[in-house]
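Page 42, continued from yesterday. The earlier attempt failed because a stray header line got pasted into the input along with the sequence. Redoing it now with the clean sequence only.
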Amino acid sequence: MSNTNEPTIMANDTTWQPISVDVLREKYAKGKEKELDGPEMVAAIRARVAKGLAQQEQTPAQHEEEFLRALNAGFIPGGRINSAAGTDIKNVTLINCFVQPVGDSVSEMVDGKVGIYTALQQAAETMRRGGGVGYNFSHIRPKGAKVKGTASSASGPVSYMHVFDQSCSTVESAGARRGAQMGVLNMEHPDILDFIEAKQESGRLNNFNISVGVSDAFMQALENRVPFELVHKAEPSEEIQEAGAYQREDGLWVYRTVDPRELWDTIMRNTYNAAEPGVLFLDRINQENNLHYCETIEATNPCGEIPCADFSCCCLGSINLCAYVTESLTKNAQFNFDAFASTVATGIRMLDNVLDVSAWPLPEQQQEAQNKRRIGLGYTGLGDTLIMLGLRYDSQEGRDFAAEITRWMRDAAYKASIELAKEKGPFLKFKAEQYLESGMASRLPESIRDKIREHGIRNSHLLSIAPTGTISLAFADNASNGVEPAFSWFYTRKKREADGSHSEYKVEDHAYRVYREQGGDVDNLPEAFRSALEISANDHMLMQAAVQPYICAAISKTVNVPADYAFQQFQDLYVDAWKAGLKGITTYRPNDIIGSVLSVESTQASVPQDLDQSTPDRKLHLTDTPEVALASLRWPKRPETPMGNPGVTYMINSPKHGFALFVGHVANGTNQPFEIWVNGQEQPRGLAALAKNISMDMRAYDREWLKIKLDSLSKTAGTPFELAMPPKGEMTSVPGNVAAMARLVRFRCDELGLFDGKTDKTPLVDALFSRKEPKSGTEGTLSWTVDINNPNTGDDFAMFVKELVMPDGTHRPYSVWLSGTYPRDFDGLTKSLSLDMRVIDTAWIAKKLRSLKDLVEPQGDFFAKVPGSDKQAIQPSTVAYIARLLIHRYTMLGLLDEEGYPLKAMGYMMSDESAQAQNKGNIVTLAGKACPECGNAAVIRRDGCDFCTACGHIGACG
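This time it went through. Structure tokens are written below.
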């Protein structure tokens, strides 16, 4: 990679997107800055911030120039710094968030923790000045504990959280920015169940994010299946003691003992259903903590990227990684590590100065900052940077490179803080040997550790990756947010103007915009363009795990999962995160309380089935489903070929039929077969429908799926005969017409090189909830059965549909077969449809059935009952009636409407048009909370921030 030291300069970019100018003007520009155009406005803001932060230096002019270079090269201080630094605003803090103590007393200090109502007053003052607040409420005695002096029982921490919630609402209504809050309760607290269910009702604790503080002891109890004690130092009431509570040798009272699996299941189910509580691995946080010797961390700020001790703050800034990519989106693309490291060093100095420039809501916060000088430098644009370098976010190569960037940032930051310590002195609480014993500091290169011993270090903590929604929009050309991949490539922003009218403009992702302006084909984006919607939940988690070892604070990352994401996989994701060394994990899943959002991928899992014998209606039960990414399944339309397209024709002569098979392909860099046809007056009935089905498979971007289909069909029984196989016409025994067609199509695919050495992803195969047809035990299983009689063709048979119960309780067909008098070649169609049924997104089988429900067969129409009605109507053909009956069954199960469209989109499958729209950035409107900008119920959680999928409004983070 590049080794030049000259940073990339970005300030003079004259093609600012309207969204960037709007956000700059609305959130960051002050006074006359608002009157400038985009480039001049950002230049003025940067000049103001550089000058404001340089005033703490002994040579302000020299450092002002240095700071401005860093800002132009991609350093973006936190939003409040950009907004207020260098202005005459004196009473508003430059710090976004704080953590503050809450003790076990109404008004007195206990064990160094201020009383509840003192904490409430301190929080109100902090939020009035613009800061968010995190708290751990575990010190408050449990519900039912004795309250000495009043002969009463405690009401518990959750009751007091409602008081804090109402106070936050009052501060907000007074005109301040949204007062974000984080509430934490430790797993061992006796009121943990009340806490985790506190937000299950819509409207409760709206001003809180909540997280459970999980200890290693609990996770080990969970793994080892041993009982777990819920404890507190406060003595329980006589009633609770009579029920079995007792005092341990360490003085703590055991209120009750629980099965950790049941407690974990309860937490996970509540998180699954309402996106909260989040999970903080507090022991891991404290083991890693550089200040483990003088503080205990119990909570984080509202977004979760800064675990802090009492009265600590998050002083944040991010570096736009995209600014350091040279020759982007070409084979010569490189990352300028040296220029990046230079900006990191200056960014550390600037954030350190913020601690001295900022106004502080409370003197305790100011003293804590002086004692420890905690800052949090991070980056934004990681997803876009990987794209510009040609690396997939969900690949090992992408994770390795992200880790390398983060390692460079870590080393440059610690070196810079050591140099600051030489010049200005280390933080007051610094003790070299204890500091170097922390999990984080122990991994530093020995050369850096030696310098810390010799010179000290200016800042106790240096690195954090925060959500960067608005600053990325304003200062980084809408580069992907923080550590996240891009959410979409392009969308339409609808903005309400001052006069009540609305305007619209396009918002492009930075990497997409660069690619488009370089002349790239936006309808066929390179493989590296992987959006958040196309990446599996596990791969999201693995990226966080790859980066975390180099970050001394934490990472704000949201793993979005689909509504039907299997609960077992959901639980496992949290356990895997603990095993991977993460400090916490946040997931977001659609639900009735918070609204629907995005979906995320999964991996194909083994699918154990159990036969439910508890009721007469015996059904196979799936205990697991595959993990499939939102938008991972593509459904391209048939390509337009106005000049025609090449193809080959094979003649098939079976004992009763002679017909032609045509296989067409398009040449676009590679030869891609895209459809097959059968023709001839004697063609077997059912093969035209099967050809349509396979043609759709050919266009599905999954070679392995097509191979499985063809291999399965090549064994379909019928009337055996000898087939003249190409290329030499050798006579080969085949079991029937379907098998002959499948083998010829497979031959042509092989001839075109379709399967040669290809290692593509297999989204359809991965989306099968069962690759092979599930089998029942000896007790059998019931199926849905319907009789079909077409007197015009002599068809008289029964259709059987096997069904199973999915983990979410819904019933799903997984196999269809026929018995009676019918053309044996129908078996090929039912075999193909059975495999289609096992794709987890019902939109797949729905599309297949819609393509067949109006299929006409010459002289094959007949009069039959309309599915779901007492009326009769002419049916176009037997195959069409089979398709209509299957659609009706899916309708009976609540999966499709009578026209064959999904009643509830799962989000895995995209049509060619919608895939193209996503490539161009258009976002499908998703259900969520009400948007303050456009009023639509479409606000979801995206990359740690509120985002409206209807109008593009960016709301609060945290």
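Notes: The chain is about 35% helix and 20% strand.
Reminder to self: strip header lines before submitting.
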